[in-house]
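Ticket #4471: structure export looks truncated?
Reporter: QA, pipeline team
Priority: medium

Steps to reproduce: submit the single chain below to the structure queue and open the exported record.
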Amino acid sequence: MSFARLQRRLRGAYLITVALSGAAVSVTSATERPARIVSLNMCTDELVLRLADPARIASVTWLSQDPRNANIAEAARLIPANHGLAEEVLGFKPDLVVAGAYTTRATVSLLRRVGITVKEFGVPRNLAEMKAQIAKMAEVLGEPERGQALLAGIERRLQALAARRVERPLRAIVLRPSGFTVGRGSLVDEILARAGLVNIAAELGVESYGQIALETVALGRADILILNETPDGPPSLAHEVLHHPVIERLGDRLKLVALPSRFWTCAGPSVLDAIELLVRAVEEKS
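Actual output as written to the record:
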């Protein structure tokens, strides 16, 4: 047997031993409120941080500790970070792991094979699905009352924002890095509607996410152009389109709104910040 193969077998045996010890914790805690929660997705991070006591959170992802990407980075920095690796997760000896439905697939598979309790959360396509996901997370964490309080606060704020909508909807289009926009069947589409905006991309037949030419943006008779930006982010070719001379010239006849991507990257309370920012833009333009 080669030395490299022996190394792999020893490493595998070590991981199984650690995993089984972690699985035992998961089984004995199945009927109790989880006390060592690990999150493997930036969006589940945010909900866990909003709903659970910090003492019960064993780890969140490193992405949530960056204020350019995350809405509550300050709270996340008080929690140990993970990079979605199975070895890291097992070292925290979790009794509950929450993950996104489309991320860290290999890690989730391994954790389930060794008996760790894993709950997955998808990507909400509208506010109703967002609210349902918050309620589900609160139930999983054993915090139904906090979940109800969070949802009640969201509903109150939505009603207050609805009262500020203007009678004549303005026309708007979202421009993201690499020339992507957001059409119908998406959470962003509903955010625009809630702010009193007609989504031009939806009118053009864009489903969910798709690319759009700058010529279309220029000729789309928009009142507001929403630039999806990451403040202080590193320069990249993808972001160059947001600073194209055509976009700068459009600012002479329509309102440009820079909306931080963290407001609507994840479906949570911060989407209300996106709606409020857009409502304010509509008020200024009307």
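Status: closed, not a bug. The export was complete when the record was re-opened. Leaving a note from the reviewer for reference: Confidence is low (pLDDT under 50) at residues 22-30.
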